[in-house]
Design a protein that fits this description.
Largest sheet: none
Helix content: over 70%
Radius of gyration: 23 Å
Distance between the termini: 50 Å
Structural class: mainly alpha
């Protein structure tokens, strides 16, 4: 009898745990999707300046593209957890 009650309680815990896990997974997907959209919008002015007829503006766009690429790489590393793993490896060893 006690074993049956234990199994019922564990099944309730498992179902609530899986719904919380699903909620976290969906929210993570939503956050990554929105941030990818924001990054794409921020890249638009840089891409437009590459196709400019003004040579000075093209030259400036190369520097802006380099900075934007570095920022995007850092952001992707931070979102994926790789940046945290690198800092943890440096701090802890």
């Amino acid at each position: 009898m006690y074993f049956r009650i234990f199994i019922e309680k564990m099944s309730l815990f498992t179902s609530s745990s899986s719904s919380i896990t699903g909620l976290v997974a969906r929210s993570t997907d939503l956050i990554v999707g929105v941030s990818a959209f924001i990054i794409a919008i921020l890249w638009i002015p840089i891409a437009i300046s590459f196709f400019s007829s003004d040579e000075q503006r093209k030259y400036q766009s190369y520097g802006r593209a380099k900075n934007a690429a570095i920022g995007t790489i850092i952001y992707v590393l931070a979102i994926s957890g790789t940046l945290f793993a690198i800092f943890k490896y440096i701090a802890v060893g």
